Amino acid sequence: MPSLNPDSTISTSELLVSRPASTLPNAIPAFMVTWSVEEEFGGMTAMCLKRSGMFHDRGIPSAVVTFDARPDLQRIRTILTENGKLNPAVPLLNLHEYYAGRYPTAPQKASIRPRGTDVTWTETERLTRPVDQTLFCIVEESPMNNQLSRRTYFRTDQSPYLVDIKVPNPRAPDAPSRYLQLLAAEGSAIAEFSSAAQLYRHWLTEIVDQTGADIIVDSKYSAAFLNLWHHPTALKFYNFHSTHIEAGQDTQTGRLTTAHEKIIKNRDDWDGLTFLTESQRTAFLGRFSGASNTQVIGNPVDGAETFPAFKLREPTEVLHVGRLTKGKNLQTAIEIVEAVAASGTPVHLNLIGDGDQRQMLQDFVSTRGIEHLVTFHGFVDDVSNRLDAARVLLLCSKFEGQPLAVMEAQAHGCVPIAFDVDFGPRDMINHQHNGFLFSLNDKESAAAALSLLLNDDALCATMSQAAFTSAKAFGSNENFARWQEARDKARINKKIRDELTAYAARLAGIRFHADGDFDVDVALDASPDRLTGLELSIRERGNVGDPQEKLVPYREAEGIYSFRVAAGMRTAFPGGEALDLSVEISVDGLARSIRLGAGPRVQAVPYLTKYGNLSIK
How far apart are CA 122 and CA 143, in angstroms? Predict the structure, then answer.
């Protein structure tokens, strides 16, 4: 691992991790992993960048890691640094920039053959780097087959470093084969990958090998291809920044979001799953059980050091801070402000941010003739000053993870009004103490609370102080301490967790007894002498509390463990929902929960009808 001592002569573009002026003893670097960093971004990217700087400032070498192909990356890096979004000492690493800056030599072994030499190619696009106008990428397509393509990426000296190509697949004419080849200085291929995900994992391993860093993944898109990534020493964390279920779905039975489904399926492959709020973690565990690799680490937010003087706040000002997207439910926010104005209370809504709903919302405001009540500001650089000056933050989202806007508002003494949706607002807002919390789309109650705060100076000042005080729990120092604790715990548990992840369990059979009891037989692929606990957990679907029943096996034979379930088990549960069965295995105090199933090869499933007759689905 390279030296991490400060060296002001080396620019961050040449470093793989930052070099804190005072590094903590035994500090292990950390990569904050996301897919891309744009010039304008939302809360997830903001927290990724902030955490990288927070780690660096407290003595942990860090870097931000991205994978996308961006010819304008240097411009983005400069803008983020100048705007204070990216710590100037923290490297912003990118796969393409990394390989474009290196000149590896081809190995002596047999060379990798070029692909697509028998295809006729036509250039369709040419991309250059804005900073120096050097060639970045040439895009080509086949005039004979629009499914075939070739993208060649170039170093600044115009030598190619990567070819991403789709060529005919003889065994599947309608599904071309994709290959990505890394190229040596003279143009010969030094490595080949059959998917972009393989290349991404290869590069991450390469930079982790050089730095010894752990990875903390913020992007769910990146997490999907990093499920399969494993490293013998590095820890791997994923942050749930948003709800893991589709909007409007029940947390225990609803459809998982497409982006999160693969992550959840492979949840045991992560050293840590972090949730922004306790309510989301509780909902997750209520559905999927197992707690050894989950923890709550909210986003870090630092507001004003001293309480902003209430008398300086504009008496009519209301803010919404965030992207103008469908999930933010901003038409409802506008209707609430309109209702307050109609009641005779002076009010003005400032919308900070941009998004695909902006034009629709502007048309809605124009149609209702309330342009004097609502101002669209787009992205601004002085959100903190605006939060210091406004009385109220109005958040009408249909779902949230941990709304950064609420945290920042409270940190500046701006009183939040929000709907009580999954998952964040209820974890931060103590109703009528440091904000107001109402049922989704309860516009009347929200409008009444907004009028109250705008008209009652004493109440608003008291709640402003309470909001400011409560926000201290989300400060950077507290957040950093939680991350250090989570990393230390995960490192201690890594060997056992890897062992637990390798274990497998499946339903081996169900046997009925004359007295109505039945046996559940479980085939367990594990080392019996290593197990310190084995139980069959029976939980009513939708019950997020502790399982009502846990059974231990009464016999074992050749890796098959039998559990006796009493005939009256169903009546022991209060609701009428189905009972879900899981096997919980423990090793040295760590547990893993495996949902029982018969395996993917089972196509016919026996069941009993309500009359007790045997049928097969």
Answer: 7
